Structures are given as C-alpha cells and as structure tokens.
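Posting this for the archive.
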Amino acid sequence: MDRIFTTIAGRISGFVGQPVAFILAALFIIVWGVTGPIFHFSDTWQLVVNTATTIVTFLMVFLIQNSQNRDAAAIQAKLDEVIRTLDGARNRFIGIEHKTDVEIEEIRKALEQECEDEEDWTSTEASIAKFRWRR
C-alpha cells in the first residue's frame, strides 16, 4: 500500500507542478465562468466550482505533505552520509532532526559560539558565519 501511494503521490505531484496542469485548471475556471449565464449563476453552478476546488485542495495538501516528508527524509539521509564519510566531521550530528526544537536550538547556538571562538577566522569570515547561522 505504501509503495502504491508513494508512486501515485509522486506522479500526481510531478504532474500538478507542470505548466500544463495550471493551464488545465485555468481552462476549467474559464469554462465554469462562461457557463454562468447559461445556468443563470445558480447556487448549483456556484456549488460545482466550490466543491471541486475544495476537494482538490484537500487532497493536494496530503500529496504535497507526503512529497515534502519524503524529500526531507532523503536530504537528511544524504547529509548523514556526508557527515559519516567526511574526515573531521562530528558524527553526533547524524540524526539531530529527531531532536526537539529546543535541543536543536541549543546545538545551533553552540555552533555559533564555536564559530565566534575560532581564532583563525578573520572578522569578515566570522561575520558571515554569524549571519548564516542566524537566518
């Protein structure tokens, strides 16, 4: 089931991110608008587009979240591999995405402090490092 959902979610996400999907959605709205006078702008006519857009939006939230979760997990795995294989890298950073927000903030502050304490950094490099960590 997981593999099927991942495949379907990936294909739909890939499609809706293309210009043709936007064009189709725009055409749907144009057709809906043009048919307004035909249906005398009735409640049913309005309900059609409201229902359709609500359903599509509701489903797309789950598809987008699935894609973001999968992408974030893949990026974390890649970063963990880079940390693991680099000489001098600290392996304790592997898996920190599972820590709480407070723990991650403490780690970030400690890294900032470590950058400030580096004696071999020029003042420009230290300023750049501080700026990057604060973003």
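The chain has two domains: 2-98, 99-135. The chain is about 75% helix and 0% strand.
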